[in-house]
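If your schedule permits, I should be very grateful for your opinion on a structural question. I have a record of one protein: its chain in single-letter code and its fold written as discrete structure tokens. Kindly check, if you would, that the fold set down in the tokens agrees with what the sequence suggests. I remain grateful for any guidance, and I place the record below:

***
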Amino acid sequence: MASYVPRVLICGNIEAFKEKIGNKSVEIIGHITFNKTGDDVKLFFGEHALTEKDIKNLLDGVAEYLIFVDALDFYYYFKNFPANAQVISAETFAQKFHNGFFSIEMFYLLKELLNHKKFRHVLDLDCLFDKSDFRTRGGSNVDLDCIAENIYPIMENVYGKIYRSFDEYRFKIFDVIILSKERTPAGFVDILIETDALTENILAFVRKNSELESWLNKSQNIFARIEYFNVASGAWCLIKKIMPLVDVGVYVVTHKDAKLYTLPDGYKIIHAGHALAKKYFGYAGDDTGDNISQLNPFLDEVTVLYWIWKNTKHTHAGIVHYRRFFTSDIKQKTFDAEKILSAAEILSILSDYDIIVQNEGISTRSQRDMMIFSTGQPDLVKVAEKIIRNHLARTQPGYLGAFDDVLSSLTLFFGGMYITRRNIFNAYCEWLFSFIIDATKEIRDKIEINGKSLEEMSHDYSRIAGFFAERMLTIWLMKNHLRIKTLPTMFREGV
């Protein structure tokens, strides 16, 4: 990140000014002399007596601040010249500059911009308002969030949500993100990449004659639009990014003829375990491109999840089953193709929430006991749990507590069904496949029942890794800051 060095004009003793500000870096552009004769107050730049217009031009051009070293001189200046937020005392400058000094004009324009553009959910990434003198929202309708480790408690009146780390806000959606720190072009690009999925609008303060200003002027074609709103020492640049077209891809997982002749836009049937299929039904399979289709007997629909992750680019992606579909109609009990959650409904829900999952299922047995009940093999479940836990500890040790809690829990988001935005979909898959493939192969290769390998056993046994994988979504959600929308599902009988 670039280090901002303010350009200043000094009125008074320069050595005294340097003593007041300590080791803070400034670029002294020039020296202004002060002259008071009776009621007549004049400022001189060299031999030239400065008018109000001259001072404004100097602060709009060569310098950003006019700083008075002597408090009495400062007093008389304000009695005889119009107020100007760029004219300040050395004491104020010394106190403010350690946080980066910004004129009040800059804040007023920013507030007006947020209101005029009707931005409501805003992330103040650099905690600009925490460095200001504002202590409340001042009647603004903007929901302003920030990222900060230490902050005055009173600033809770300014900020709606104060995030402590990137993990807390990395899956959120904001109307705009405010960037106020001085950055090099490379640093600015890094921030754009880091926050890419959070917003399509960036409101960045860009200082006059900076490297960033030059880079933005040369790079306008890589953005949809850049608008400039000038202030004394630079401009607020409202940058609208070029965003991919919205594309919903919800995959209906099947291993048989699904007998689904009409589906809403955005839904696609996919044959799970296509690489090992003995019958084909004309559906796309999970065995093209980068795939793990061969592991389907052990992981069930998780092989499709991997395929979607590696081979598609939908902006919103999800997975449902040929017999189970989400619906927004809470009264709908039987299957009706016209009641399947539509792409428009998905986009509407995911503008307010981060992920759509099934209503929580409640059981009288723990998740561990449910798997024992399904297989009739307590030792199989015990050994598989140990193997999966070891792989989780190796790649994702921070999730061990959630793993143990969910396996002992009576509730679950059953079915491994969910729909979400692409960045969240990818994040979950990156987490899951960091351990589940290796764990599944070890379970396949090491576990035997009555002298038979899992490959030789019925699907009730071979799919034990799939049973655990079904619980993984709930485990992952336990540790991530997501707004969860639960919906009922319609079940198709007789298929």
User: Anything to note?
Assistant: The domain at 104-240 is CATH 3.40.50.150 (Rossmann fold). The chain has a mean pLDDT of 93. The two ends are 60 Å apart (CA to CA).
